[in-house]
Amino acid sequence: MRNWYSIMSAAVMVAIVPLAQVKSQEVLVKPLPGPGPIDNPLKGWCPYTDAGEIHQPYSMVYFYVPWSQLEPKQGDYQFEEWEATWNVAAAEGKHVIFRVYIDYPGQPSGLPDWLRQAGVKETHYDAHGGGQSPDYNNSQMVRAMEDLIAALGARYNKHPRIAFIQLGLLGFWGEWHTWPRDEMYASPQTEQRVIDAYRRAFPDKSLMVRYARDYAGQQAWIGFHDDMFPEDTDNGKDWSFLAGLQQTGRSANWKSAVVGGEMVPNQAKLWLGQEYSTSMTMLQRAHFTWVGPYCPALEESDDAEFLQHSQELVRKMGYQFQIGEVRHDGVSTADGTFNIWLKGENQGVAPFYYPWSIEWALFDGNNDFVTSKKTAWDVRNWKPGQFSESVELSFNVPAGKYQLALGIRDPWKDRPAIRFANQVPVIDGWTVLSQLKIVR
């Protein structure tokens, strides 16, 4: 049987332009381009877990949760009990996006009973299936929301499974409006207190709010979600999603804060069919990273065009990294030190939003991981367009020949998870790119 080194050498020679001697003991590798993965982490479809079968690959799941479930008694937070509901088969191995709501039309109120008993008034309405809208400006209500947000931050700000968080809480569905009953909605002052509370509680998570108006429209750090993509993303009206961003100067927030949202419910076949060009245009103009909880992955279809358009949208969403070339010293110095230069392209419409560690690893001839070294590279800087990096590394390993692999580590799964749009071997998440010799 051929050993792993021989097999991998053959695979590399097929998938990669043959190694070239650029100068003495320097190696140049140009991986062949390929289609990007459609289930890379923190991008693409983010479906419900309880809306039926999911028909396409995905890396995230979406959860609504009523406040009353999280805090049935004042200060008694039931986070562990809620997290147990994540353990359904559809959510296994998936990152999570969530939104806390108080008033979901057509559903039981999410206002905790203890606030109702404390005197928070509710107003009945018939729109959207009806419900009870709470007095968002009640002083006890506002303080209680701030306390809840602080508790959420203590639990989830550092939680590696949490992808992104929607502010929620205010308005119908937590979407920051009570249209057509605008008089029931929160004041700008309440909005500000909620936004500030989330900012304090979640310094390390990318947060999203529905509209770029008032105080939210003054924040350069915040992300946004458009829950009628692509129909109302830019429909020519001054209330459309992009118009709102432009009016308050927030149309460039995507460079540092995530943009996502929901597709028009039950309309995926339209927007990936005859209206597909509009979907792609709006995705690019708004710099979407993800779509859900209703999304095309929930639609069963054998139509080749539907599936092709779906994959094209996912590949364009968020980031898609393609390696153009890797150049490195082919032989290390006596202490095992060598230099690596990397050139690549982000072919997506947005950056990656978290500082996941970028690492280089060595594998031996038996397909065994030997060691890895972190770089000081920041993947958040790989914005749409070209990028380049360089690093000097030293591996304390025995002399010999090794496979050189690149990985971007998911801190939740504690292994490399982001894959590249190249035709290259991947071992346990590590992208194998070249070979080098360590001497002593």
Structure description:
The protein is of the alpha/beta class and 440 residues long. It contains ten helices and 21 strands. It has helices at 4-15, 67-70, 79-84, 113-117, 139-156, 188-201, 241-247, 268-271, 276-286, 304-316; strands spanning 20-21, 26-29, 44-45, 60-66, 95-101, 122-125, 131-134, 162-166, 206-209, 223-225, 259-261, 290-291, 321-329, 337-346, 358-363, 369-374, 385-394, 400-410, 415-416, 426-427, 430-438. The strands form four sheets. An eight-stranded parallel beta sheet has the order 3-12-11-10-9-8-5-4. α5 (139-156) runs parallel beside α6 (188-201).
Overall mean pLDDT score? 93
Q: Which band does the percent of strand residues land in?
A: 25-35%
Give the structural class: alpha/beta
- Gross morphology is elongated
Helix fraction by DSSP (H/I, runs of at least 4): 10-25%
Tally of individual helices: 10
Largest sheet: 8 strands, parallel
Q: Report the count of strand segments.
A: 21
Uncertain spans = 1-24
The Cα radius of gyration reads: 24 Å
Task: Give the neighbour order of strands across the main sheet.
Answer: 3-12-11-10-9-8-5-4
What is the rounded distance between the termini? Answer: 30 Å
List the topology elements.
Blueprint lengths: L3 H12 L4 E2 L4 E4 L14 E2 L14 E7 H4 L8 H6 L10 E7 L11 H5 L4 E4 L5 E4 L4 H18 L5 E5 L21 H14 L4 E4 L13 E3 L15 H7 L11 E3 L6 H4 L4 H11 L3 E2 L12 H13 L4 E9 L7 E10 L11 E6 L5 E6 L10 E10 L5 E11 L4 E2 L9 E2 L2 E9 L2
Helix pairs in contact: 5-6
Task: Kindly summarize this structure in a few lines.
The chain has helices at residues 4-15, 67-70, 79-84, 113-117, 139-156, 188-201, 241-247, 268-271, 276-286, 304-316; strands spanning 20-21, 26-29, 44-45, 60-66, 95-101, 122-125, 131-134, 162-166, 206-209, 223-225, 259-261, 290-291, 321-329, 337-346, 358-363, 369-374, 385-394, 400-410, 415-416, 426-427, 430-438. It is of the alpha/beta class and 440 residues long.
